[in-house]
């Protein structure tokens, strides 16, 4: 709790409605349990430490430049960067400036590198090989097992079978992580970053230790009478949320209700991460920083709120 408390906001809540079922003694003094059920890495960065290629999680923005030609791999790369979707520790999709994915032409039949796919498949999946003693120097292996090489200022092909790291090698690139000092570190990054084998254990360790019954005891003893608990949309599909999210957050929420009741506290549920991400921030559950919540997600979002309301009303 020491970790959590110093980032909590004390909220004074003034309700204008009263429920016939539960008597409300207004106002409440409540505290926000940030990072408890929706990961916000800045509150506990150490949970992100233990992964291979830890700097290349979903949402890492990179500029990839041919050292030989001193030209960027993708066009219009002067401002932001191309965005990684992580498949596993060494394999990625690259989402470029127009939201499309870099891949091989003709659905992977060709060797020319293009960025035309709206959803990534095998032909948009690349392995990144980093130079052992200089992780900014990379080569990219295409799904046809050949390395990308620059042919000219406007042509990149996946047809290089050689090796080597020299400056004039057309398959060698320099990768700069643009958002290195402000990386995305949310629920998507932690679960997908650890991968399906480890993520469940990491998240269960977190839920079992970050906020415990002792914290509810502490809060109520110190005069707080409510908590606000942020949840993510995937909680409505617990215990089998879509990958990479892992099951168990609903049980953690149930525990919080049990403890709140025991210590005479109220709970405010806050749908903090809506499907598609309402804001592209860490706490919005985004994969890559794009805000893609919109009309098409309204029904899903209402269903999540209905789910929570039904569950908590029993
Ligand atoms: C990563 O994913 C690729 C593509 O699915 C696969 O070929 C490779 O074996 C995986 N590597 C690891 C370390 O799991």
From TrEMBL:
Q: Which residues form the Glycoside hydrolase family domain?
A: 203-282
Could you list this entry's UniProt keywords, alphabetically sorted. Answer: Glycosidase, Hydrolase, Signal
Pfam families assigned: Cellulase (PF00150), DUF7910 (PF25490)
Q: Which domain of life is it from?
A: Eukaryota
Molecular function terms from GO: actin filament binding; hydrolase activity, hydrolyzing O-glycosyl compounds
Q: Which residues form the DUF7910 domain?
A: 53-178
Q: What is the annotated signal peptide range for this record?
A: 1-25
GO process annotations (BP):
actin filament bundle assembly; cell migration; establishment or maintenance of cell polarity; polysaccharide catabolic process
Can you list the GO cellular component terms from the UniProt entry? actin cytoskeleton; cytoplasm
Q: Which PANTHER family match?
A: FASCIN, GLUCAN 1,3-BETA-GLUCOSIDASE ARB_04467-RELATED
Q: Which family does it belong to?
A: Belongs to the glycosyl hydrolase 5 (cellulase A) family.
Question: By what name is this protein known?
Answer: Glycoside hydrolase, family 5
The organism named in the record is: Dillenia turbinata
